[in-house]
Amino acid sequence: MKRNNAEQIGALIRNFLRQESLESPLNERRLISAWPEVLGTTIASYTREIYIKNQVLYVHLTSAALRQELMMGRELLVRNLNRHVGAQVITNIIFR
């Protein structure tokens, strides 16, 4: 028997994640995992803790000079991280 209402598996998985409210936590995890890839391994080596709370990315850095440098490019960094994930996950970054 031939079926005509076939759907792509990717679309079915996205719909399931959306219905079960799992899409946002998954995107947050993907964004945190993308931090070394987007900023590079050198900057990632100065990073101690990264977490997201209320669409704000909190990053603990060990270098005050690097913290100041990243604060100046914060808006571009938010856009690049969101673009890498493919969704609006964060709206701001707090460097500590």
Automatic annotation (TrEMBL):
* UniProt-listed InterPro entries: DciA-like (IPR007922)
Q: Which is one Pfam family of this protein?
A: DciA
Highest taxon above the source species: Bacteria
Annotated protein name in UniProt: DUF721 domain-containing protein
Q: Which organism is it from?
A: Bacteroides helcogenes (strain ATCC 35417 / DSM 20613 / JCM 6297 / CCUG 15421 / P 36-108)
Q: What is the lineage of its organism?
A: Bacteria, Pseudomonadati, Bacteroidota, Bacteroidia, Bacteroidales
